[in-house]
TrEMBL record:
It comes from Paractinoplanes tereljensis. It comes from the Bacteria. InterPro entries: CysQ/Inositol_MonoPase, Inositol_monoP_metal-BS, Inositol_monophosphatase-like. Mg(2+) binds at residues 82, 113, 115-116, 236. This is 3'(2'),5-bisphosphonucleoside 3'(2')-phosphohydrolase. Residues 1-23 are annotated as: Disordered. PANTHER family: 3'(2'),5'-BISPHOSPHATE NUCLEOTIDASE 1 (PTHR43028:SF5). GO terms for biological process: 3'-phosphoadenosine 5'-phosphosulfate metabolic process; sulfate assimilation.
């Protein structure tokens, strides 16, 4: 991890407090950092006695901050947030049957997960939780249309973002510790097929919370791949995938197709993020283990 790719999240000296950068990628970092600081405060103030109350308070506080700052500094843009009420849309075959979300007519949509790794946030001592801020833009050149992204990991005192894309992860000399590929997977609900996949390719599973933290582990070279299937939403992956793509990593659905964001139905149930040299082997093995 280089110094430029890993910045302490606190307000820098001499910066006028509350004035965000104009450039979208730096704005994404600023916003994720702000929400991260709020989440640390919530943890400090509430403690861990009531985990459910802590999760609810954290989700709400970070969501409210992101919503307010986006309304203030990017008033023309649309927002898709995990904490919004998606239930008012009646889904039918993956299409909204009644209300068409306003964001589908917008050229710029901020896709945010105020607190990814909610469970880990509520557990004392755990640092594997994150704030995700991504910008989807119809003008963006990449297939996923992700123009900017930031993942703040406040309890780890680091933020990764597309304004200073991290260096391409180092190649382990012998394929990682013990010579095996390291696959980051959910610590509480790893998909069954990932275990079978790991056995076939002689990989080791590295359990941790938060999709953002797992993708950050691949970006940092602490893991070689993140494989997930069985359910997730656009906000779980948009920001870390934006950073992974800016770093030069492979990121796709597990069938190899492009990850698409700002779709009518925000479900995005599976993905794989890995070094480019691993992608052909991993995708071929995935074909044999698709759930
Ligand atoms: N099967 C599933 N269905 C829906 N969401 C899932 C899921 N598996 C993981 N996720 C979401 O992906 C994020 C990372 O999960 P995990 O740590 O288990 O890998 C979590 O986001 P939130 O914490 O924002 O809810 C979690 O809710
Ligand atoms: Mg999430």
């Amino acid at each position: 991890m280089t110094e430029t790719s890993e910045r302490i999240t606190s307000q820098r000296e001499g910066e006028p407090s509350g004035t965000p950068p104009v450039i979208d990628s730096a704005f994404a970092r600023w916003l994720a950092d702000r929400a991260g600081q709020v989440l640390l405060q919530v943890r400090d103030e509430m403690g861990y006695a009531d985990g459910q109350a802590l999760k609810t308070a954290g989700d709400r506080a970070a969501h409210d901050l992101l919503r307010a700052e986006l309304a203030r500094w990017r008033p023309a843009d649309a927002v898709l947030s995990e904490e919004d009420d998606h239930s008012r849309i009646a889904w039918q075959d993956g299409e909204p049957a009644s209300v068409r979300p306003e964001r589908l007519g917008s050229n710029r949509v901020w896709i945010v997960d105020p607190l990814d790794g909610t469970r880990e946030f509520s557990e004392q001592g755990r640092t594997d939780w994150a704030v995700h801020v991504a910008l989807w833009s119809s003008d963006s050149a990449n297939a996923s249309h992700l123009a900017a992204g930031a993942v703040a990991m406040p309890a780890q005192h680091r933020t990764i973002a597309t304004d200073h894309a991290p260096a391409y992860p180092p190649m382990p000399i012998d394929g990682g510790p013990g010579g095996s590929i390291r696959i980051a997977a959910s610590r509480t609900r790893p998909p069954a097929f990932v275990t079978a996949l790991a056995e076939e390719i002689g990989a080791e599973l590295v359990p941790m919370g938060s999709a953002g933290v797992k993708i950050a582990a691949v970006i940092n070279g602490e893991a070689d791949a993140y494989v997930h299937a069985g359910g997730q939403y656009e906000w779980d992956s948009a920001a870390p995938v934006a950073v992974a793509l800016a770093t030069g990593l492979h990121a796709s659905r597990i069938d190899g197709s492009a990850l698409k964001y700002n779709e009518a139905d925000p479900k995005l149930p599976d993905l794989v993020v890995c070094r480019k040299d691993l992608a052909p082997r991993l995708l071929a093995a995935l074909q044999r283990h698709l759930p």
